[in-house]
Amino acid sequence: MNFNLSEEHVMIQQAARDFAQNELLPEVIERDTHQTFPAAQVKKMGEMGFLGMMVDPKYGGAGMDSISYVLAMEEIAKVDASAAVVMSVNNSLVCAGLEKYCNEDQKMKYLVPLASGEVIGAFALSEPEAGSDATSQKTTAVDMGDHYLLNGTKNWITNGGTASYYIVIAQTDPEKKHKGINAFIVERGWEGFEIGPKEDKLGIRGSDTHSLLFTDVKVPKENRIGDDGFGFNFAMGVLNGGRIGIASQALGIASGAYELALKYAKERKAFGTEIINHQAIAFKLADMATQITAARMLCLKAASEKDQGKDISESGAMAKLYSSQVAMDTTIEAVQIHGGYGYVKEYHVERMMRDAKITQIYEGTSEIQKIVISRSIAKK
Ligand code: CAA
Ligand code: FAD
Asked: In what residue span(s) does the Acyl-CoA oxidase/dehydrogenase middle domain sit (predicted)?
């Protein structure tokens, strides 16, 4: 693995950093307070190529590598983890899935507007009774000849209220268990497709999380992704890459909180000296810096392996498991370093602590990452 970033990588990182500071930072506290989706900012992210970063330019993408994606995600998440999850879902669950597994007609119709940021997408696997246990899909897609009839409920769907296109996973043949599951592209506005109320969340409050309700929705056959029964393998394949996105989001939350804590520790005085001169505070910062560096290495390793076309189920899961733990630990300590000021919104770190928690839950909980990793190492 080459640890040196190319000139292009540094440029992308700087562009994401400038965008985050200039466009995301100014109203991030208000968006968190009022649960406002960063619509104008997401539009600009699309214009900058951040919503289809790794997609081939012939499908409207920016044609960058996964290293660039990690670098940009970290910078965006440092400032606004809600904007970062919109970016992660659109890039690594929606666009990556469509580019890798869809046919040319599907790509021209759906991938082009999604990768260019004209519209955004959502990925709907989880259900009220099927989260970690994702093969237990209750949503059904009955084969009616020229179309499927979709019925059921999806839960916790990121970009649920703002997406134009949704990748929906559903059971077609329960007897075949996960081999009877299919993935479909569903358009917003189709008859029988209803969007539930917005969830009122602990963190990533600027992101838009909804349940989706399907009642006899007619999905044309040409909107199925891949062969009949490919849906579960599709979802797992997509999630392997998605976990790099969420790992990078977690990394960004951690490094954002660390940077604020370091700055504060150098300025705040107690007992006649800057608090960084108290070893208890300095050691917390030393732990944070070490763990963040290790998390960044895991994210870049997984990204590098993805770019080399390797199996990233293990490295993506490791990156997510570790980075999300670092995000949680770092943000808790960042609040501690800020003392009472850390407990109020103005200083940002309390929001980062709330935002960090979700990275241990979505795209596979930490317990599920350990299942993925342990199964992989057991096979060796
Ligand atoms: N990569 C590729 N294929 C995989 C895989 C992986 N990481 N994990 C499982 N599979 C394949 C298996 O090979 C098997 O396929 P075959 O039969 O063709 O060989 C099939 O999937 C079933 O595998 P298992 O028998 O191992 O299935 P299981 O029921 O034991 O569960 C699991 C596997 C790993 C726990 C899986 O259910 C899982 O990942 N659960 C977590 C779900 C999840 O991550 N949801 C995230 C929703 S999206 C989201 O959250 C977005 C957001 O927040 C922003
Ligand atoms: P459960 O699966 O019920 O798990 C409960 C607890 O049991 C967890 O601690 C879990 O780790 C543990 N557990 C379960 N099984 C095992 C086991 N075998 N061994 C050990 N421990 C186990 N989903 C989507 O499809 N698309 C999205 O865009 C999306 N966005 C989300 C956004 C937010 C804000 C949230 C909160 C969730 C989102 N999700 C999304 C859903 C998310 O992926 C699930 O919440 C997650 O996979 C966990 O499922 P669950 O909530 O049903 O918990």
From this structure: 122-217
Coil, strand or helix at 271: coil
Whether 2 maps to a domain, the answer reads: no
pLDDT at 1 over 90: no
Q: Does any domain span residue 1? A: no
Q: pTM value? A: 0.98
Q: What ipTM, to 2 d.p.?
A: 0.98
For residue 239, give the ligand nearest its CA.
Answer: 1
Residue that is last in its domain, among 120, 144, 178? 120
Report the number of secondary-structure helices (H) and strands (E) in the chain.
Answer: 13, 9
Written as six digits, the tokens of 291 are: 């763990």
Question: Same domain, yes or no, for 78 and 149?
Answer: no
The pick from 93, 156, 214, 366 for probing ligand 2's pocket by mutation, whose C-beta has the most ligand atoms within 8 angstroms, reads: 156
- Ligand 1 centroid, distance to 236 Cα (angstroms): 5
Active-site position among 99, 127, 314, 363: 363
Annotation says 363 is catalytic: yes
